[in-house]
Amino acid sequence: KLVPWWTSKRVLMSLLCFVGFFFLYAQRVNLSVAIVCMVQSESPSHITTVQENTSFDVMQVNISLADGLTPRNVSYWSDDKDGLLLNVSIKSSKGPTCPISTQHEEKQRGEFSWAKDTRGLILGSFFWGYTVMQIPGGLLAERYGARIVVTFGMLTVSIFTLLTPVLARGSPYLLIVGRVIIGIGEATMYPSAQVLWAKWAPPHERSRLVGFAFGGCQLGNALAFPIAGFLCEYGFDGGWPSIFYIMGVASFIWCVLWWGVVRDTPRQMKGITDCEKEYIELSLGVHKADTQDKLRKEPKPWKSILTSLPVWAILVANSCGNYGAYMLLTQMPTYMEEVLKFDIKSNGVFSMIPYIGFWCVVIIAGTIADFLVTRKITSIERSRKICCCIGHFIPACFLVAVGYMTCHQQTMAVIFLTLSMSFCGFQMASVFINHGDIAPRYAGTIFGITNTGASIPGSIAPYVVAAITPNKSQEEWLNAFYIAAIVYCVGAVFYVGFGKGEIQKWAEEPQPELNQSELIESERNGDVENADDVFIENEAAKHQISS
Questions:
Q1: 448 contacts 136 by C-beta, under 8 angstroms
Q2: Confidence label for 316 from pLDDT (cuts 50, 70 and 90)
Q3: What is the per-residue pLDDT for 72?
Q4: Distance separating alpha carbons of residues 124 and 236, to the nearest angstrom
Q5: Bridge partner list, 75
Q6: Please, what's the b/e burial string for 11-30 (b: 16 or more CB within 10 A of its CB; e: otherwise)?
Q7: In principle, which of 388, 479, 485, 535 could form an S-S bond with 396, CB 3.0–4.6 Å?
Q8: What angle do the packed helices 443-455 and 134-144 form, to 10 degrees?
Q9: The Major facilitator superfamily (MFS) profile domain covers which part of the protein (predicted)?
Q10: For 55, which DSSP code?
């Protein structure tokens, strides 16, 4: 029988996961964009006095600049009495001239006057909840199923996203509590998805199905920037609150669809064809006897998991890859402002481009990986390692290249940033899905463990970059990029040395004991060659054990 693909339930599941991960990341980064609109902008420190000669319509501007920079030309015009736009061309004693555009408008000031350290506390609070809930999220998904865990987790995220404007207007500390809870809710999504795909994705289709599903993350990153920027300017209730209202409502609708459509196993899925159901179960080695209840009651092989080198290979490679990814996620707009001298609007647009590239490469990488495995060109293990090397070494090279770019090479810098982030997409066809290869029964737990470690760079990378770049110079940023490149390479080398692609012995599915009549039926179906021999072997094994 021909097994369907485009009309299959597993593709539908991948599409629903894609949309869910889109909202997952959009609600993760929305505050990073919105806080620019929420907080009162500081007056430009380099403009000290302004005097106007009304007779000749001439403005005199006194400007003080650091690092040997001197003003070259200053011109101005005013569209209305509320706004003043200064165009300043800066000449540096250290090199060529870089154009800077500075806008100072009262109407752009936000509602809050939070200090910079308070803002940093608010933005970082998400990772507090996100990190501590990774392992419990996997355990819950394995015990109760991914469907119910994801529903409650993302429902919590949706509700507190909707409440964000209320919390922010109440107190910054209420907002911090809300962001911690959002982090806790989002932490259930990734490990639950691993549990789900361990039961839904045939091994030679796993890269495509899971890669496409996780691709929603990067599209959420990419589109959050322009959408939030548009709503800040034209949204209702002061602009920035509409970001949280719209995303919260959309995420809530997705939760309803997820609960109504998704099932934990193909056998539970409504409307699935017998052909597709048998195809998935046979490819995964799932027996007709339901082992889910046994799995829930069985103790986890914690010692085997924590001492397994393949598990540590995933953890190290994922953590190293996330260091570079989180560095770009949190610091790319800052780099574009400090070194490339982009204005705010251009910054938002160009910050989006690398994530569009990432999303496209995720789909391509998954297709290539599955092609290699399906055509038996490479084994699963070799396919994962090839994708890991591409997803770590190539981004490292382009990241170093970015560090040598100046404000006169903006186009090349954006191209290199885009290529660096895009090739990270190969990680999604490697370490990100390897949990299901080596231990499908415990994929959620292992993902929770590895993603806990991989979440730590989200907090470390911004502090490392801030410590290295106090003067905001290109040379300092080059050092930051070199460090990220070295971390990338360390992760790839460790994974190539210790990563695996086959199910580990401690994670193998227990074989059900069949009586003689069941063995005879299996012989008729071609599952066993000689039912009598198998039955005798089973009885002999029992006798030997009892003796």
A1: yes
A2: very high
A3: 44
A4: 27
A5: 87
A6: bbbbebbbbbbbbbbbbbbb
A7: 485
A8: 170
A9: 13-503
A10: T
pLDDT at res. 81: 44
Residue partners of 295: CB distance under 8 A and separation at least 6? 142, 441
418's tokens: 């885009």
Q: What one-letter code names the amino acid at 182?
A: I
pLDDT digits (tens, 9 = 90+) for 114-154: 876 677 678 778 888 888 888 888 888 888 888 999 999 99
* Single pTM value for the model: 0.67
pLDDT value, residue 167 = 93
Is the CB of residue 231 less than 8 Å from the CB of residue 246? yes
For 126, other C-beta atoms within 10 Å of its C-beta total 26
Q: What are phi and psi of 41, to 5 degrees?
A: -75, 140
Distance of CA 291 to the CA centre of its chain: 32
Q: Which of 302, 427, 306 is nearest to 362 (CA)?
A: 427
**Tokens representing residue 421 in the block:** 């982030």
Instruction: Express each pLDDT in 231-257 by its tens digit.
Output: 887 888 888 899 999 999 999 999 999
Which has the closest alpha carbon to 32: 133, 174, 164?
164
Q: From CA 181, how far away is CA 424, in angstroms rounded?
A: 29
pLDDT digits (tens, 9 = 90+) for 432-482: 888 888 888 887 788 888 888 888 887 777 778 878 888 878 888 899 999
Q: In the numeric block, which tokens belong to residue 238?
A: 């002061």
Query: Residue 529: phi, psi to the nearest 5?
Result: -80, -45
Of the candidates 210, 205, 200, the residue with the CA atom closest to the CA atom of residue 280:
200
Sequence-ordered list of residues with C-beta below 8 angstroms from that of 171, at least 6 positions apart, any chain: none
For residue 439, the number of C-alpha atoms closer than 13 Å in the C-beta half-sphere is 26
Structure tokens at 295: 């799995």
Is residue 85 helix, strand or coil? Answer: strand
Inter-residue contact 498 to 313 (CB < 8 Å): yes
Average pLDDT of the chain? Answer: 76
Tokens of 141: 């998904």
Q: What does the DSSP assignment read for 74-125?
A: EEEE-SSTTEEEEEEEEEETTEEEEEEEEEEEGGG--SB---HHHHHHHHHH
Longest dimension (CA), the chain: 112
CA atoms within 13 A on the CB side of 314: 30
262 Cβ contact partners less than 8 Å away, ≥ 6 residues apart:
13, 16, 146, 147, 150, 196
Q: Which residues contact 412 (CB under 8 A, 6 or more apart)?
A: 405
Place of tokens 């990378």: 461
